[in-house]
Write a structure and sequence with these properties.
It contains seven helices and 18 strands. By secondary structure, it is α+β, with helices and mostly antiparallel strands. The chain folds into four domains: about 70 residues; about 130 residues, no CATH class; about 70 residues; about 80 residues, 2-Layer Sandwich (Herpes Virus-1).
C-alpha cells in the first residue's frame, strides 16, 4: 500500500512539472464567439494585465460575445477579431456591421498610429463613386457596395487606375467629375485600401473576408512574460523545429520516467521487505534466547543399553501363555504376539512389548509407551546438567 501511494505521488509530480504550462498564471482564454487568446494578446477583465504585451488589448462585446479590437484612429465601432495566427503573427479583423468599405472611407486603416503594434504590408488606391440609379455602364472591375447605397443612389468602387482609364474613355474632354460629363456619378473619395495579394481584385465582393493585420514586436511565435523580471521569454520557432516536437519529448519523458519510477519502487519495496524480515528474525531469536534463559527446559533422554538389558525378558512358548491373556498385541508395532517371540517387561508398570520394539523405544524415550511412567533409573537432564549422564542400573530379578 505504501509503495502504491508513493507511485501516485511521483506520477502527480510528473504531471505537474511537465504538463502544466510554464505560464500557469496566464492560461489561454477566449470570448464565447471568438478565437483563443494567448500572449501577446490579453482579454480585458478576463486575464491579468501582465498576461499581454503593450498595445495588444482585446475585449469581449457584451451583446454579441465577439472578440473586438480597438484602433485609436478609427471613428467607428471596434473591429471584430475573426482569427489569430500566432505562427505568422497575423490577425484578421472585420467590421461588426459587415461594411468594411465604410471603414475604408473613414480611413481607419490608412495611417495606423505609431503607438499601435499592427501594420498592413501593402495598400491599393480605390475610387468610390456615388451614382444615380440611371448609371449602368461601368467597367468589369467596378463593384456595387450595397451597404453604402440607398433608394436614390448607388455606391460603386473600382481601382483608381481603372477609374482613370474609364473616365478618359467616356469623357469628351477633361472634366472634374463624371457627373459633369453626363455619367450620373460623383466621386466620393479616392482612398487607400489594404491589399491582400490573393484577393486584390475581389476585395469588395460579398462577403468581404476581412483585413489582415500583422505585428513584428514581440518577434516570437511562442513567447510570454517572465513574472519575476517582467521580461519577454521567447523561443526561436526555427530552433524549435530542428529538435523533437514537444509531444514527442513528453512521450519520451513518460515512456522512460514511469518505468524507471516503477523499477525504483519495486527495488525499494524489495529492500524494505528484506530489512523488515531480517528485523523480525532478529527479534524472534532475541525473544527465544530471553525465554530460554528465564525458563530452563527439561530434556528427557532415553536409557542406556545395560539398563534396558536389565529389564525382564519372557520367551513365549507354543501355547503363547501371557501374563495378561487379553493383551495379545504389542502397543508399539500393533502386531500380535507369536510363539517363540521375546517379550520385555517394564518393571515399574508391568507392561510388556516385543523386546526389539521396546528396546528401540527406550533408547530414545525413558517412559513407558502405554502409561508414560518413567522407570526407575531414567535421567531427567536440565541445561545445567550433562545430557550424557549415565543411568543407574536396575538389579536383575
Amino acid at each position: 500500500m505504501a509503495a502504491l501511494e508513493l507511485f501516485f505521488s511521483f506520477l502527480l509530480l510528473l504531471i505537474f512539472f511537465f504538463f502544466i504550462p510554464t505560464r500557469a498564471s496566464c492560461p489561454p482564454s477566449s470570448c464565447p464567439g471568438g478565437p483563443t487568446v494567448l500572449f501577446p494578446f490579453w482579454l480585458q477583465s478576463l486575464q491579468p494585465r501582465r498576461c499581454g504585451y503593450a498595445g495588444f488589448d482585446l475585449s469581449c462585446n457584451n451583446q454579441t460575445h465577439q472578440t473586438t479590437l480597438s484602433l485609436s484612429n478609427s471613428s467607428g465601432n471596434n473591429f471584430v477579431v475573426q482569427t489569430i495566427d500566432y505562427d505568422l503573427q497575423t490577425l484578421i479583423v472585420n467590421d461588426p456591421d459587415h461594411c468594411l468599405p465604410k471603414r475604408f472611407l473613414d480611413r481607419s486603416f490608412d495611417n495606423l498610429p505609431d503607438t499601435m503594434p499592427f501594420r498592413i504590408h501593402s495598400f491599393k488606391m480605390y475610387t468610390f463613386l456615388n451614382c444615380s440609379p440611371q448609371a449602368t455602364s461601368f467597367p468589369a472591375t467596378a463593384r456595387n457596395i450595397s451597404c453604402l447605397g440607398g433608394e436614390n443612389h448607388t455606391v460603386f468602387v473600382m481601382p483608381s487606375r481603372e477609374y482613370d482609364n474609364w473616365f478618359q474613355s467616356t469623357a469628351p474632354s477633361p472634366s472634374p467629375s463624371p457627373s459633369s460629363s453626363g455619367l450620373s456619378c460623383a466621386v466620393i473619395s479616392g482612398v487607400r485600401v489594404p491589399a491582400r495579394a490573393e484577393h486584390e481584385l475581389g476585395v469588395f465582393e460579398d462577403p468581404i473576408e476581412g483585413v489582415a493585420l500583422t505585428w513584428s514586436t514581440p518577434d516570437c511565435s511562442f513567447c510570454g512574460l517572465n513574472s519575476d523580471t517582467s521580461q519577454i521569454v521567447s523561443s526561436d520557432p526555427k530552433a524549435e523545429r530542428k529538435g523533437l516536437p514537444r509531444s514527442a519529448k513528453y512521450g519520451i519523458i513518460i515512456g522512460v520516467g514511469i518505468p524507471g519510477i516503477l523499477c525504483i519502487l519495486g527495488l525499494a519495496s524489495y529492500v524494505c521487505g528484506r530489512i523488515n524480515a531480517y528485523g523480525r528474525r532478529n527479534r524472534l531469536n532475541m525473544d527465544l534466547s530471553t525465554s530460554a534463559s528465564q525458563q530452563p527446559t527439561i530434556v528427557v533422554v532415553g536409557l542406556d543399553g545395560p539398563t534396558i538389558e536389565s529389564y525382564p525378558k519372557t520367551l513365549l512358548g507354543e501355547s503363547r501363555r501371557l501374563p495378561k491373556p487379553n493383551d495379545t498385541i504389542c502397543s508399539i508395532c500393533l502386531g500380535e504376539y507369536q510363539p517363540k517371540e521375546e517379550l520385555r517387561t517394564i518393571p515399574e508398570c508391568n507392561h510388556y512389548f516385543h523386546a526389539s520394539c521396546v528396546d528401540e523405544w527406550l533408547k530414545m524415550n525413558a517412559t513407558c509407551p502405554v502409561c508414560r511412567k518413567s522407570p526407575e533409573g531414567s535421567a531427567l537432564v536440565t541445561p545445567s546438567s550433562s545430557i550424557s549422564s549415565s543411568s543407574t542400573s536396575l538389579p536383575s530379578p
